[in-house]
Amino acid sequence: MPNSVSNFDFAEEFRQRTKAFALRVMKLVDRLPNAPSCRAAGLQLVRAGTSIAANYRAACRARSEREFNAKLHIALEEADETVLWLELLSEGGHLPAGKIDDLLTEAKAIMSVLGKAEKTARDKLRKASS
Fold it and tell me: SUPFAM superfamilies of this UniProt entry (predicted)?
């Protein structure tokens, strides 16, 4: 769990980053066409995209290393799912080419950060239990 000043700063920056990402996802979903497939994908996208921020915030408030790792893992899964929905909307031709490239790049970057953080937390937990 974050406990040093630099870790606290990173955690706060990443909290803000995931929140900003969630807001961007919400705005994108609000602008999707009204086709049934867009509505279905949009609902899944907004659920997954906002869940990243919620689960990361929960991880930062974790009461134990185990709880911290579990919440990070959920946030990582939601980030991966967000990438899927963005790719489906893009490849399905529901948005103009390049419309979500920045959002997709940010989703993958968030996924990378969460993956590294989860691996570090998992390794730390394994080391502590050996």
Answer: IVS-encoded protein-like
